[in-house]
Each structure stands twice: as C-alpha cells, then as structure tokens.
Amino acid sequence: MVDVLVIGGGNAALCAALMAREAGASVMLLESAPREWRGGNSQHTRNLRCMHDAPQDVLVDAYPEEEYWQDLLKVTGGLTNEHLARLTIRASATCRPWMQKHGVRFQPPLSGALHVARTNAFFMGGGKALVNAYYRSAEAMGVAVQYDTPVDAIELDDGRFFAARSGERRFEARACVLAAGGFESNLAWMREAWGQNAAGEWPADNFLIRGTRFNQGVLLKYMIDAGADVIGDPSQSHCVAIDARAPLYDGGICTRIDCVSLGVVVNRQGERFYDEGEDFWPKRYAIWGRLVAEQPGQIGYSIIDAKAIGRFMPPVFPGTTAATLDELAQKLGLPGEPFLRTLADYNAACRVGTFDHTALDDCHTEGIAPAKTHWARPIDTPPYYAYPLRPGITFTYLGLRVDEHAAVHFGGQPSDNLFVAGEMMAGNVLGKGYTAGVGMSIGTAFGRIAGARAATAALHAAQATQGRGQHHATA
Asked: Which SUPFAM superfamilies does this chain map to (predicted)?
C-alpha cells in the first residue's frame, strides 16, 4: 500500500504527486494514457497566468491581485467562488520558483501572443516540455508511474477513500488525489449535456476536441453517482472557435484562429452575430466557441483583408483567399447577397481613428448591430482571407465541489483522505468563460494543495496504524 495515490497524468496530478513526495509520502500516479500521450490537456498548453506586483524575469510591469480578480470576474459573469479564486490568484504569484526547481523553464512571450507579456508566463517548449520536466522530476524522486491505467471505480466508505480499481487491478492507498480531467472527450455525454437546439440540431455533433482523447469523464461520473457534491453546468466549458478543418482530438493550440478581432465573423447565412472587438483577445477568445456553437450548423467564418496579415499568430491551415469579396463568398459556399450586404454595411459603419491592436483603440462602428467596439477598419484591401470556425472544446466545467483544502465533499462534509484538483474541480472557479492561462493557475494551485493535504492525511493514518500495532504488541 502506498501513502498517496494520484489518479491522472496532467499538470494538476503531477503537482500533487510532487508535493506529496516532497512531504515524505510514498506516491503512485495512475495515467490512463500510454506514455507517448501522457499529460492530459496540459501537453497542449503554453502559459500560466501569474499575479505579480513588480516585473519578474519574463513578466513585465505588474499584474496585481485586484486586476487579476476583476479579469476573472468579468469573463465568468460572477459565476465563481471568490475565496477559491483569490486563493488561486495568490498561489500564482509564488509557484514559479517551485516549478523551476522541478525543471520547468520559462521564456518571453512569442511575438504573436497578443497582450499577455504582462499577465502570462510562457513555458519554454510549451506544455509538453512542462509535462516531461515534471515526469522526470517525479521519477527521480521515486514516484511510481503506471501508464495505460484508466481508473473506472473508487472504493469508498462514508466519504473515506480505500482503493481505486482499473479493470481487475486494485490500488490501495491511505489517501488519494483525483485529477483525471473532465468529460469533453466523451462525445455521447457532450451530446446529452448540450441537447437539441430550436432547429432540431444536436450542436455537440459538430464539436471538435482541442485536447486529449483520454478525458472520457469515467471517474467524474463515478464520483457523481457515488454522491460527491457537484458544481457547475455540464454545458459550460473552455470552448474556443478553432479551425473547422482541425482533427477531432488533440489539435491543440495551433488550430486556434486568432484574427477574429481584426475583421468580422459571419455565420453560414452571411450575417455577423457578435462584437468582434469587445475586448483584448486573451480575455475574449474563449467565448467564441460557444458563440459559434449557437449558430446554424455550428460553423462561422472569420473574414479579414490584407491589412490584418502579420498582426496575429497564423494558424496551422492556410486561409481561403480571393481577389474580391464576391469570389470569397463563392469559395466558401455562402449566400452572396447577404454576405456582401453584411460587409458593405460594416464597412460603411466603421469610424476609423488611430488603429492600435495593442490597445483598446478608438476604431469602432456606428449605426449597426452588433457593433464592433474596437479595431474596426473597413475590409477593403485585397486579397481577402477566410478561416472556417467550429467550436473547439478544451475542458468541461462540471466538477466536484471543494474547499480551500481541495477536499472532496459528500453531503456538505469534506472527506479526510480524498482530494481533487485540476479540471475535475475547475468549475468552482470557472462557472463560465475563460481568460488565457487561468486553467494552469487552477491546476497548479489546487494540485499543490491536494498533494500536500493528501500527504498529511496519509502520514497521520500511517502513524495511527503504527501506534495501534505497537499497542497490540505490548498488550
């Protein structure tokens, strides 16, 4: 029997395993994926949102707690637990030296990563390098790692953990950390969560999964059925508008379309449906997946002209190009008259001031709905470009309710030896919406808390068992 069993293989699980091992506990980590696909969605990440009151190596200026909190409050629309959110924010200010101790390296932001040099610390080599560094450190410290081991059941008694099961295999431990991700890769569950729309469509049938194919939600469903306290809306998720030509799973960051704020987005009827310039892209990119999901056929098209080229991180697939807007509509299969009318109305409504894509500038529209609040310039300079958009799900927000100790709750009571971290509890902080890098902040903060608490619980249990053994020996 090990002291601490960690179920999951991404950032939160690895942080928990490392913290528990540092505390002196014996640790085993169970990863459902094979070794080459280890790391969950963390392998597709690239940065961590960090609070800081002064410049810190790769972070410029300052990003104080209150600004971070207001950013989070805005994107969630208030659907967040302030106590747990502020705990996450404060933890983000102090975690990087610990991460570096375990081999994670940071770099300045890439030139196309808009507006995040101040708020986000980028991993050198991306999420895959972070995951590999943590696994190297864990293995060097004596953490036992089992790949190809999806857990399908947990043995519980009155909220206490006793063992995990993977098929016929059974893993006992004195304490456990659940960090096995959400259910976004379970397409049947996604279909059930989103249901049918008014047009009779099943929106989830047209979703793409940006992250790992291994997040099937089996353990999450088991815990819900076992009576664990739940938080979050099953239809809410980190949902990004990505290239419609992306693969079903594991497209990662390179399939994101980052030119939305530089042009307009239309649906398959050739009509605009939301303000493309509402705010900086890192604060708004994660609303666009849901916006596209609400459109007919769950598809949209990001339209730009030559003026936008070079101002955004180019996606992996080239855009559709045309010398005229009419030709572009034909190539996209869009109805020509509505599309051209939408673009003409938009161009006429643009009030161009001083264009500055690094600031909330004064280029806006007047007299049309939806408005474009910033960065509004006529789309009038050929060649014209279009990128097809589909909803890209990163991770789901339905999860287990926690407290500041990361304990799983049953009927409002915290378990004394079962903890949860990462996407399985992110809904406590993210009721809806997203801002770049906050998922890694949540996973790192609660992974470290869960690992430390699990180690304490396990070592106390071991001491109690040893004490009982000595008592029986002397009796």
From this structure: FAD/NAD(P)-binding domain (SSF51905), Succinate dehydrogenase/fumarate reductase flavoprotein, catalytic domain (SSF56425)
